[in-house]
Amino acid sequence: MSEEEEQSLTMCWFGMYQPYATSIVHVPEQEISPDEVDKKDLVFIWDKYMKADILSDLLGTPVPWSPALIKGYSRKWKKEDRSFTCELVQKEGGECLGAVLLISRLSEGQLNPLIESYKVRGYSLKKAKVLIGDLTREILAFLP
After folding, report:
1. pTM (2 d.p.)
2. 101: part of which helix (H) or strand (E)?
3. What average pLDDT does the segment 85-103 reach?
């Protein structure tokens, strides 16, 4: 494969509704280093912001991230007019693939639009156990 054919892949999420919705996570543009995983500067996201271009537009800059999984929650689909939206709901045995963002590289002003977007939809930052690779860490997550 030539250099022209190589492209950085980013995380994305696609699908209309379950069971057809699929989460796919690719190599991030900026990875979180192993020593940064142990810091408390991580936040779990799980929805449309898993699309790197949407997240970068909202924050104004690319941000390091890593694939992650939260247990005890799952996506629930709601039909609104002609489209579907997903919500995160607490569910025993549930799992939701998402990503953790390294927020220490962002200013408060850059992070506020993300917080406001989740807040408007009824989510707030709460501590939760999240699986990052094979490591379980208690970090902040946007939860109902």
Report:
1. 0.77
2. strand 83-102
3. 90
